[in-house]
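Case study.
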Amino acid sequence: MNICVIGCGYVGLVTGAVFADLGNDVISVDIDKDRVDILNAGGCPIHEPRLPELLERNLREGRLTFTTSIPEAVSESEIIFICVGTPPAEDGGTDLSQVEAAATDIARSVNSYKIIVNKSTVPVGTGDFVREVIEKNGVATTDFDVVCNPEFLREGQAVRDTLHPDRIVIGSSSEKAANIVQFLYQALDAPCIITDTQSAELIKYASNAFLATKISFINAVANLCELTQADIREVAKGVGADSRIGHAFLGAGLGYGGSCFPKDVDALLYASRTIGAEMSILEAVRMENDSRVPRFVQRIIERLGAKDHVPLEGKTIGVLGLSFKPDTDDLREAKSIEICHALREAGSRLRAYDPIATANARRIIGDEGIEYCQSPYEAAKGANGIVIVTEWREFIQLNLNRMKSEMVEPIIFDGRNIYSSDQVKDAGFEYFSIGKTSTKH
Ligand code: NAD
Ligand code: UGA
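After joint prediction, the assembly is written out as follows.
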């Protein structure tokens, strides 16, 4: 099939590359010329495992092309995927200006029947909005259909998730359009849920909000553990063993970050309020998440700080991990931003290390009061404590003796529970983790 994908970000690039790899002809469009130039030169503008190989192969074999020209891409395609950003709007709702711009550009280039598929995460009613924009720009209702096909991939494993989805959701008022989109996915052998547009739109927000709720719930239980000698890892293991609950997303830590959970919880909360069916449960989810970093920093200050208005003055802290999760260089809503800011504000100097996100961190967190290091051991040099912010695999088997020899005080504040208390205690560290009382060596 001939496919156009509008937006070459995390979702658009992976979607285009996977559809091309399944044998379709894909034209991917982005308004960012620099991004399109990188892609046409065989590069990959984001860090996403397996994506560079997929892009390179399909570009070389001619199934995948990149352009800044929507007219060219739309006129040659039967199916057009909208994969642009849907950031928060100032009023707390969702900013649909990128979707509107894409729909307007599509409308101006329609030359035959088109299926316009919204893959961006959008509030209920956006399918109708896209339809109105296209009709307003002079396209006859018989010349197009609108479909909602939300995306559930995770960054860091986006290619895997796209090739092996738990389900594919297709929402449309047109049976014909829904069937054509379903045909596109048939090679993936995943269950397909065909439904109305509004339900498809809400499935996406409800899924993200439910996962965020699981995280905030287990984090609230972790707070209880810290006051009761219980261990959150044991509690989560026991709770997750119930097949009705499951182990996934019961990892207690610094809370959820990233470009989607925070924004999608807020968007659903806003929509529910506006519609008059307020989901106050999400207010609690959000409040718990917002309290994670202040609570963690408070523990650091209580252990290391003086009773002063700049409690960490003269202290050096090593920060391990800056991306919002492992296997990505994405820092959008990363907990590292909040932690670095709070630790600097408390007077400490930071030595930070991330395997791949340092360039983005320099841009977003800045250089003031932070030295970016080449290894975890360099970050530990002269440190009064180490803070684990992102659970990168390479931190799990660090040489703890070597870390200790670099540090002034052997203390680990583990925001992602990557170590066992015995392991760090044996190496001579004092250990603070989430959801467990601290352990001294
Ligand atoms: P992104 O910011 O990485 O990419 C969006 C791209 O769209 C950018 O490259 C931008 O230049 C381009 N763009 C914007 N307006 C355009 C236009 N009019 N024409 C052509 N290109 C345009 O965003 P993303 O992370 O890929 O997310 C896209 C959507 O998918 C969002 O709604 C998001 O909520 C949703 N989503 C994201 C993920 C994820 O893991 N990142 C997962 C599932 C769903
Ligand atoms: C999430 C969803 O998992 C995807 O299904 C969805 O498509 C995507 O959002 C989206 O809509 O953009 P992603 O943000 O890439 O994917 O990453 P996750 O692995 O879900 O992690 C999100 C945040 O939750 C991270 O900050 C992570 O550290 C945190 N998390 C995750 C926990 O704190 N505990 C856990 O047990 C799991």
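Observations recorded in class. The chain is about 45% helix and 15% strand. The chain has a mean pLDDT of 97. We will return to this complex in the next lecture.
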